[in-house]
Design goal:
The structure holds 4 protein chains of 4 kinds. By secondary structure, chain A is mainly α. Chain A has helices at about 5-25, 30-50, 70-100, 105-120. Chain A has a single domain (about 5-120), classed as Helix Hairpins (Orthogonal Bundle). Chain A contains 4 helices and no strands. Chain C has 3 helices and no strands. The termini of chain C are far apart. Classes of the chains: A mainly alpha, B mainly alpha, C mainly alpha, D mainly alpha.
């Protein structure tokens, strides 16, 4: 029980690191956004797993249960998810604009192009 | 089961696969939320993660090309950074309270009050809805405004393309994209059902899982299905962008207006007790109205964002 | 209740298989097929899990997943077609 | 008691079918063969599961919802399989039976 009780945090950390790795190691902007999303989801899972009470049930009142999971993290995460999709949409539209301006979504290419433009000026 | 998720995520290579795997990943995490009793969250995550974001990412991939270049840097340095950070975090968790223990500090600050008092004070069974809409009404309003702002951002970046006139000939490459009767019939069969289901989720949110966000996303999903099967121009006839944009503003207005009305009735801002003689009825009424506002805004914003992206995939 | 437990385990096994195919699938269509199957099994799993925890009023979720899964697969197919059109244009 | 027994039977049948379909998905050599395995096994598997749960639920709103789920699955899953195969065929993916006369003649 003791070793297993921290299991959820470890999973969260593995996911978080996977997302983090994708963000910093990948040069492709779309892939970076996917990594960011994975990072976000790991945070969601962490909050939700903190709100879980063993033996409890979903926080909707019923007759045959007295113990409920904690509704507060659920509310926070509910709003966070919707904000997350809004930011994702914004990020993706930025990617499209970058593609139009630079004809590439690879970080290295974009850096090279903008450097060349700076030198030309 | 949690471990499957980790496996699913760490394997990545081609972009298209990445996005598809991301869809699976969202479904899995939504399932985890169900197991962890967070039904409302699972609802939202499935709608948003597996539905909307995947579609948006695909649309982006269409315009940007789907092949990723091999990384030029050596992956060792990021890997080292990640490992060190991860190890540090794991070390940090050793002090965290165990999983599912009812004695955790998380469960004893304000949560007690929400769980015990909310059925009496608000009068609706779904605690998530009551906390979301009533106790934390300000947060939710701010969040609706954030979504609205994101729409503004997307529009200022890429914009919705103009609706084509009926008389103009279709673009020449549409010959390769013949109408597909089977899917169109299925879509026509399903769309009324989806919209009905959205309304059910919208107004049943007090009693079961659901509410404004989820209903808004489902409604947007119906429009997206229509767009995918009948093309963007027909969909724009169905839901003209101008109307959609007005609606997204209207939703925010309904939400904020509810607060003003409750102020005029002598309560605080967003204090629904003032809306009716009976506080409980007032609460119920207030929650219903602001959920409607949230639903309208979210649906309109999602539809508008999708139109913007779909317009980008058709041009050029 | 025992039967429900067995059903959950079976579904998890099936989903594992589908996941492997989604990771390994040589063609993009194999992956779509696996994703589709994965979604169907998720729907069933949510339904069975609802009965296992004796709160079967969460079937709304199942309905919703079925819809989202369908829309997702259709979207993927449409965009694949479109991407291939792009590729042809670029090759010409 | 009879209901419990029926639940057992249906859930077990559903599990077996599901695993069969998944096995087909795993091992069959060709895309079309995999579609075949999955779509057929899946449809029946869904039906078995839902029926098994219906016997557990008795007559209530839950039953209606279960039947809605079943109808939806039965509508959407063949449609998406069909669309999938059509997209694959139009993209130029052909079945493995070219030059293999034995299996290309077999039709059901």
């Amino acid at each position: 029980m003791n070793a297993f009780s921290l299991f959820n945090y470890w999973i969260v950390i593995i996911l978080m690191m996977a997302g983090f790795y994708t963000v910093i190691a990948s040069g492709n902007l779309v892939k970076k956004i996917v990594g960011l999303n994975i990072f976000q989801t790991s945070v969601f899972i962490m909050y939700i797993s903190m709100g879980k009470v063993i033996g409890g049930t979903a926080p909707i009142v019923t007759v045959n249960s007295e113990l409920y999971s904690n509704p507060l993290p659920h509310v926070l995460i509910l709003t966070a998810i919707v904000v997350a999709v809004a930011t994702t949409a914004l990020g993706l539209s930025l990617v499209i604009r970058i593609k139009e301006a630079y004809h590439s979504i690879e970080e290295d290419d974009i850096l090279a192009i903008s450097q060349r433009e700076d030198e030309a000026e | 089961m949690l471990a499957i998720t980790a496996i699913a995520v760490v394997r990545f290579r081609r972009l298209f696969t990445v996005v598809m795997l991301f869809g699976i990943y969202s479904l899995l995490s939504a399932m985890i939320f169900v197991v962890l009793d967070a039904v409302d969250v699972a609802f939202t995550e499935a709608a948003v993660g597996a539905g909307i974001s995947t579609v948006l990412m695909l649309a982006t991939l269409v315009t940007t090309g789907r092949h990723e270049k091999p990384p030029r840097h050596h992956p060792l340095l990021p890997l080292a950074v990640v490992t060190v950070t991860g190890a540090g975090l794991i070390w940090g968790t050793l002090d965290m309270p165990g999983f599912g223990n009812p004695a955790d500090p998380v469960h004893h600050h304000v949560a007690d009050r929400y769980v015990i008092e909310s059925p009496r004070e608000i009068g609706i069974p779904n605690m998530v809805t009551s906390v979301l809409a009533s106790y934390r009404g300000y947060d939710t309003m701010g969040e609706v405004i954030v979504v609205f702002t994101a729409l503004m951002g997307v529009l200022s970046l890429i914009g919705i393309r103009r609706q084509r006139k009926q008389s103009t000939p279709p673009p020449e490459n549409s010959a390769t994209r013949r109408p597909y009767p089977v899917l169109q019939v299925m879509a026509i069969l399903l769309i009324p059902f989806i919209i009905l289901f959205a309304l059910y989720v919208q107004f049943h949110g007090d009693y079961g899982p659901g509410g404004g966000f989820q209903a808004g996303v489902i409604f947007a999903a119906a429009i997206i299905l229509y767009t995918l099967n009948f093309g963007l121009d027909d969909a724009m006839l169905l839901a003209p962008p101008k109307v959609v944009l007005r609606l997204s503003a209207l939703g925010v207005l309904i939400y904020a207006g509810t607060g003003v009305v409750s102020m005029l009735n002598g309560g605080n801002y967003l204090d629904y007790n003032a809306l009716s003689h009976d506080p409980l009825q007032g609460q119920h009424f207030g929650i219903l109205v602001i959920e409607l506002g949230v639903g309208i805004t979210v649906a309109a914003v999602m539809i508008a964002i999708f139109f913007a992206f779909a317009g980008k995939t058709e041009k050029q | 209740m025992m039967s429900l437990g067995i059903a959950v385990v079976a579904l998890l096994v099936v989903m594992l298989f589908a996941l492997i195919r989604a990771l390994a699938g040589p063609k993009i269509y194999d992956r779509v097929l696996a994703v589709n199957m994965f979604g169907t099994k998720t729907v069933l799993l949510i339904a069975v899990y609802g009965f296992l925890t004796e709160r079967p009023d969460f079937l709304d979720l199942s309905i919703f997943y079925a819809l989202i899964n369908f829309i997702g697969v259709i979207a993927v197919l449409k965009f694949i077609e479109r991407i291939e059109e792009y590729d042809e244009v670029e090759e010409q | 008691m009879v209901a419990d027994l029926l639940t057992w039977i249906f859930l077990l049948a559903g599990s077996v079918l599901g695993i069969t379909g998944a096995w087909g998905l795993m091992t069959f050599p060709d895309f079309y063969a995999r579609v075949h395995a999955v779509s057929i096994a899946d449809t029946l598997c869904a039906a078995c599961f839902i029926l098994g749960l219906v016997f557990q639920a008795g007559w209530s709103l839950v039953t209606i919802k279960l039947l809605i789920v079943l109808t939806l699955l039965w509508i959407t899953s063949p449609t998406s399989s069909h669309a999938l195969v059509r997209a694959a065929y139009r993209a130029g993916l052909r079945a493995m039976t070219h030059g293999n006369k034995q299996s290309s003649e077999v039709q059901s």
